[in-house]
């Protein structure tokens, strides 16, 4: 019999060393997250609620206190919170390999679903009835996104500073969409710096401000050759600036995919968003559809790997150290408040632009009716997203048929 002994994983969890113990834990991790990958409808908040109920309170993988501390820090990281939390919980249970298994199993089902949607999209798009269907789904998706933004802001709604940051970020994003990543990261850094400044004396404040302003204004850019290299650049950048929710990637991707590279039309991008909402698992899986439309199966793999790589890298490398040292830091909480405010501001601007774009398959009035209905249903009922968005498509077909008759 293989020798076994108890040790701690990279994240501090107790692991049973030995082939049988490791296989048992990895099988448990794979089974849970694969099932959630197939059934995890409802967006990031639904996934987070499942983790809390099943893994924290149910299976006791981690204490409530540690989960809360880790979650506060994960929200301050670039990358979708729900996906990175899955990687974190997998690593707590099964070390780095457990984290890789958890994240991969959560993403895999929706990856293959999006591949199928991408493969059949062109043939479906050619059918006459598909235009009002896709139009209604697009409008409903915008309503659902607006409701998700409202829920994302829930912890900060009573904070006036949060709304100031949101308004400023919205204005900056509206004026210069390409600055969206810098606005989000810079807002978070600014929040932490302002808290630090409030704790310093007058002389130190002057010195710190002189250093901080140039650092806040520094950006990065680069050129690349080949479509796959461009895809890697776009989706890596997106993965590194997604704060709080996968929906934060919408403004950046629209700017790069539609406005800059012209890989997708505005309507195709909207369809990709709708498909990302109705499939289970992370909303970031929209990247798979975009990558497939740009460069086929390889493009889908490259885009998906690019957008999710930062989450795996962060959680499985330096995060355990940061968790021990920064979990309860007031600077972390301040960074999150400012960064999430900037995220919400940029998302609202993009939603407004998408809603104002030329309508294909319907009218703006119809879009307002369907989108507003989806928003109200999302706010005041428990109808799942994967029913709301197709329901918007069905309502669009019915209303246009009624008006036509």
Protein architecture, described:
This protein is globular. Strands 1-2 form a two-stranded antiparallel sheet. The protein has helices at 19-39, 43-58, 64-74, 81-125, 130-152, 160-175, 180-198, 202-217, 227-240, 249-260, 266-278, 286-316, 319-326, 330-356, 364-380, 385-404; strands at residues 5-8, 14-17. With 405 residues, the chain is mainly α. A hairpin with a 5-residue loop joins strand 1 (5-8) and strand 2. Helix 6 packs across helix 14 (330-356).
Strand content: under 5%
Q: What string gives the helices and strands in order?
A: EEHHHHHHHHHHHHHHHH
Q: Tell me about the largest β-sheet.
A: 2 strands, antiparallel
Global morphology = globular
Number of strands: 2
The proportion of residues forming helix, as a percent range, comes to: over 70%
Tally the helices: 16
Taking the alpha carbons of the first and last residues, their distance comes to: 77 Å
